[in-house]
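Checklist before submission:
- one chain only
- standard amino acids only
- sequence pasted in full

Submission:
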Amino acid sequence: MIAYIEKVLAMLEVEVRRIMHDRTELYTRAVQPILWIGVFAPVMEKFRVVPIPNITYMEFITPGVLVQSITFVSIFYGLNVIWERDLGVLNKLLVAPVSRSALVIGKALSAGVRGIFQSLIIVLLAEILGVRIVINPIYLLLAALLIVIFCAAFAALSIFIASLLKTRERFMGIGQAITMPLFFASNAIYPINLMPNWLKAVATINPLSYAVEGLRALMITGDLTTVPLDFLVSFVFVAVTIVIASQTFKKIIE
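Returned file contents:
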């Protein structure tokens, strides 16, 4: 077990080193959240297109924008795996005395580390624009944990997809094809009760809805009523994706 944890932590260390060495990607990925929070949200709030009780629309949308941003970060981890295979790095990892699940978990948690860094930028931006974040250390720690879990789940899903597609060209278009439908079919930018019935059904089984709702409760409203369910769904989601990705991981070099 100790050796297993060491392998997972080694993958995390590699990702932290990458982030410290080159933070350009973190800054460039902040452009889209700036547009959502700084442009889209104030316009919608001014015209009161989406009625939100007790909080402003900018506060309502911030967790959704955060989740969208970290989802984009995570869903492209499969592309990194394909690059590592082409460079010969992945072959060395797969012949090493390390279980495939340790490799997948390590890479998935690496996405969580990058997601935390990305989230800090978005939260700082939101604070500057006037979003009131709940300053409670326990709530913020739980929010960070939820971010890591959600990032890990989508990174594992990305690795699974990469194992099936196997080439960069096939994989390149997959990010938007997955994340944008999930984003718009969730409670990220409008409440579920305003959706048509068919979209309500989709949003109810959409894991992104639970990540958004959990972060909204922990960061904005402070109402933790739904948080246990949000964590439960997220834990199930990450467990399923890691198991599937671990089973198919070796196929990427076949």
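Reviewer check: The first helix runs from residue 2 to 21.
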